[in-house]
Write a structure and sequence with these properties.
With 92 residues, this protein is mostly helical. Helix content is 50%, strand content 0%.
Amino acid sequence: MLTTIKINKDLQQQLKLKSVEQGVTQIELANRYILEGLKSDSTPNKPTMSLEDIEKLLNHDKPEGNNLKKLNGLITTEDEKDYVTFEKENVR
């Protein structure tokens, strides 16, 4: 599964330097850092899923059906947004 995320330029440069230093791609390093961050998150009662588990849940073509409801509540934020308004404002 591919997606795009926006990170600030300084963070991008640090990621690039660290990836060269470690001899891995920026994507591999970013995925590792994100997974480590998710595992170390102290959110109570929320099991951390592996990238493979999340990818399996997002696979809509599997025989047992769509399991997107299992993702509900895995990521929490204090920032409440009206995403319809957000999209309308950012498309212009």
